Amino acid sequence: MVLGRVWLGVALAASLNVSAADDLGGLLDVASPVPAAGTGLHGFVDLSAARAYESPSHWSKLRVRGELEATGRLNERVKWKLGARLDADAAPDIEDDIYPLAVRRDLRSEAQVREAYLDISHGSWDYRIGRQHVVWGEMVGLFFADVVSARDLREFYLPEFDQMRIPQWAARAEYFGNDWHLEALWIPFPSYDNIGKPGGEFYPFETPAGATIAGEETPSNRLGNMNWGLRGTALVSGWDVSAFYYRSTDVMQTFYRTSAAPLIFVPRHDRIRQIGATFSKDMGRFVLKGEAVHTHGRQFNTTDLSAPFGLRPSGTLDYVVGVDVPIAGTWRINAQYYARAFFNHADALGVDRNEQGATLLVNHAFSDALEAEILVVSSLNREDYMLRPKVVWQMTPQWRGTAGMDVFGGQRSGLFERYDASDRIYLELRRDF
């Protein structure tokens, strides 16, 4: 522990250009700790049950999740946070005729470190070192400019985003000026999307008949595979705008066809670069928001048998514009238009050159304790949709109950319709402490 503090002190002295005998000693001096009252412990326990009702009906989830976080200070400049999560799910073993063995092993239990970092303040600079969330964009229902976050996609995009995000081991430096902010990010040990195992309800790759999905290959932790990015934000005439550049090993999997006979696919991760921007503006009666990201280096599966590894590279532009409208203090309506443009399009990709969609969220608060909400996400190119109604009851400040449905439908070629057999109803009970 002492050696770790010495190493961290030397690194910070170099980056901050301060004297190790003076300023650094003040940063990490644990001989004068903040009183114990500055330390906090909180978390939650969540009980979730989901029943897929399409034939054959089965339990999709019977999970207990516990999360615990501790926060505190070493001194006035240095804070810390440590969090962990433990999951146990009985559904996979109860439904052993539905889920393959690999899926049951993957879902039945999991323990993970969530966040574990130091926050260090030095003048106009803030540093965060360790396992952390980095959120560069946030729209309703889907991810766009939030390119840094890895995600747990074993339940598609159904969980709350703060629950499905997977933290990154990163070092982040932020400089705060008047109405502007700069951020530099380095991720030496990247995390990647957790898509589960083939045969899972929301596995993202439709396996051709007779094909095999081999084990996922993740890049080695060499310098060329590390992620880094720069981001700037500013408040300009009431517009909150940002721009970023991010060079990374893609958090998403690309399925390489490594053998044609037998047919074998291997999930790998492409090296990509992304340039993006976000904006938001309070227009008085509503809030206007938007995000756009250009991605270079990503590859997509194709039916062209002559394509190397069954893939075709294409630059893409993802963009979204939305409005958030509060009405009479009890209603909230959010509407979004989103699209993806393929710059190297081919019919063999199985998608249109411009894939478009829309989302609509309507929320109504009946009281301080009870609210109802419905979210609809739909393609505009074809009949393909996701429908998510729910009711939330905040029984006490600590206890919350949620009941809802997740419904998928449309054409077979659509993103959502492929999960039609996973339509489900669910109940959740959460206790915060």
Protein architecture, described:
The chain is mostly beta strands and 433 residues long. Among the domains are: 1-31, no CATH class; 123-358, no CATH class. It is 8% helix and 53% strand. It has five helices and 25 strands. It has helices at residues 2-16, 23-27, 91-94, 101-107, 161-164, and strands at residues 40-52, 58-73, 78-89, 109-122, 125-132, 150-151, 165-166, 168-177, 180-189, 212-213, 227-236, 239-249, 254-260, 263-268, 271-282, 287-296, 299-301, 311-313, 316-327, 331-342, 354-365, 370-379, 384-393, 399-410, 424-432. The strands form four sheets. It has an 18-stranded antiparallel β-barrel. Strands 10-14-13 form a three-stranded mixed β-sheet, with no helix packed on it. Strands 6-7 form a two-stranded antiparallel sheet. Strand 1 (40-52) and strand 2 form a beta hairpin. The longest helix has 15 residues, at 2-16. It is globular.
Short descriptors:
single chain, 433 residues, mainly beta, 18-stranded antiparallel beta barrel, three-stranded mixed sheet, 5 helices, 53% strand, disordered N terminus
